[in-house]
Design goal:
Shape: elongated
Structural class: alpha+beta
Largest sheet: 4 strands, antiparallel
Number of helices: 12
Strand content: 5-15%
Length: 283
């Protein structure tokens, strides 16, 4: 699941707030020490999860006017998540506070509505710019050492014709890559790697060996061994759209949708509920 979608995975009981009557006096719990009324329950729930609940309810009403998520689409997305989580699916629902799969689907549906709104907002200009800036995956290998002096020594040996695998086996402190001659496999610009390492790796031509590159792990000598071909713009459009659909993009789209729908909040305690920052601390 995308990170922005996971951010929508609020506690399953949040929407229960909408079932409470703000001015109700009906008793929901009794005790010798006193009763708890619907109004009291509402006020407590409003204070704890009111902003999240209102945001979720308003978002769904606004988006449902313009976009549609079918049961087939929803079932397919849930099936995809089940496949990813396997036997941990039920435990994950409980962890996030959902009572069952149907409860979870309510929030998942909102996430998919936001996804549709976000994807539709991405312009051809944004896609073209993303395509022009896109760099295909590369395959690289490296030798990691503790200090620059050793890195320069390694670089000199490679320049003199020593085999990368042999030098890696002798010098590298990266045991995992060392076992494969320093090979790191294919990775892209968004890989979970040190930023300085990524920047240096993608600046290299195929077969070029870098100067020492300092990172949080030490000093690297990097060689790019392969680079995938860049596919056509038409073939990459869907992939690029997915990459452009960030949390920031979703927030931007939702603010526009709310403005277009002329949403106004009458409850003064929840006046800032639709501010993206209002629920950030609870997500």
């Amino acid at each position: 699941m995308k990170k922005w979608m996971l951010a929508l995975t609020l506690a399953g009981g949040v929407l229960a707030l909408s079932a409470c009557n703000q001015g109700g006096s009906d008793t929901v719990a009794e005790s010798k020490a006193g009763n708890v009324t619907e109004e009291e329950l509402y006020e407590v729930m409003k204070d704890k999860v009111g902003a999240q609940a209102l945001q979720q309810l308003v978002y769904e009403k606004v988006l449902s006017e313009k976009y549609e998520v079918t049961d087939k689409e929803l079932d397919a997305k849930v099936a995809e998540l089940k496949e990813q989580l396997g036997e941990n699916f039920e435990a994950a629902l409980l962890q996030y506070g959902y009572k069952d799969e149907a409860d979870f689907k309510e929030t998942m549906k909102l996430g998919m509505l936001q996804e549709k709104a976000g994807l539709e907002s991405i312009t051809d200009k944004e896609l073209q710019e993303a395509y022009e800036n896109y760099k295909p995956e590369i395959k690289a290998r490296h030798i990691l050492v503790a200090d620059e002096k050793t890195a320069l020594e390694v670089k000199q040996k490679l320049d003199d014709g020593a085999k990368f695998e042999d030098i890696s086996n002798t010098y590298s402190t990266d045991e995992a890559a060392k076992a494969n001659g320093g090979d790191l496999g294919f990775f892209g610009t968004t890989a979970q790697m040190d930023p300085e390492f990524l920047k240096a790796a993608f600046a290299l031509k195929v077969n070029e060996i870098s100067a020492p590159v300092k990172s949080q792990f030490g000093y690297h000598i990097i060689q790019v061994t392969e680079q995938k071909e860049k596919e056509s713009f038409e073939k990459m459009k869907d992939q690029l759209k997915t990459q452009l659909l960030t949390n920031e993009k979703i927030n931007e789209v939702m603010q526009k949708e709310l403005k277009d729908a002329n949403v106004k909040i009458s409850d003064k305690d929840l006046k800032n509920a639709l501010d993206p920052q209002a629920t950030a601390a609870h997500q």
